[in-house]
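[[Sequence with tokens]]
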Amino acid sequence: MKLTRRKFIKNSLRSVLGVIGLTGGSYYYARYVEPRMLAIRNFTLENDKIPTSLHNIKVLQFSDTHVGYHYDLKQLKELIDEINYQRPDLILFTGDLIDAPNLYDFPDELPVLLSQLTAPLGKFWIYGNHDHGGNGTEKIKDVMEAGGFRLLQNSHTRIGDHRGSFILAGLDDVMLGRPNIDEALHLVDPDIFTLLMVHEPDVADEIQHYPVDIQLSGHSHGGQVQLPIYGYLITPPYAEKYVEGSYQLGDRLQLFVSRGLGTTRMPYRFLCRPEISVYTLKSKEL
């Protein structure tokens, strides 16, 4: 396989970092400070298919908490307080609740905390690869259901009322689940505004050929460690092309990739703050 220049530089930098590590103040900052520097990212979703009754609706996405791996219940409680402070109308979780379900003891407090999240239009979630891993599929599902979240696994629902609504769909995890986009969008009217949750962002290259207006993803963590000018060093499979922020694919699909909240593999964040995203719907009819 041909080694590209970018991959060569990435591998070289990884080797250097592995040898010298993060030292002194840089280590302390990356290990203990930035992982707790939560950023709130605000986006506007303007589309002529958004009904006037949903104008200014706030949709909040959070992703990749990886509870159990340097992300504890105290941090989760602080996150929940911040999410509720944002007063979202709809809350979406795009996967990877627990880092290693087979090693986690699942305290009773976990679903209680999740149940404290409030949103008048509901709370929905999808599986990430860590949720399916470590025999976590049913355990995570039970916790999320107890926390008041509804799973969208290759399925969709309508958000709104008789005055107007949009489609919210969810795809099963691409790496360890059984994703089926045709099933998820079965009988969806392409003239209705459609938002799709997919854990892994790179499948947007396929999703753009379906009647989807917005794709919300996580999984990448933004690389966790970024360098000035160069950017991120390495990201997981299916998050190598689309890493953070927003992307326009074709004439229709807009992709948003969250850097997530927790960490995995390495307990560091450097120039890559954890984040939650708030999307405000705007109707062009007003």
Notes: Helices lie at 5-20, 24-33, 73-85, 109-115, 129-132, 137-146, 181-184, 204-207. The longest strand covers residues 39-47. The chain has one domain: 5-283.
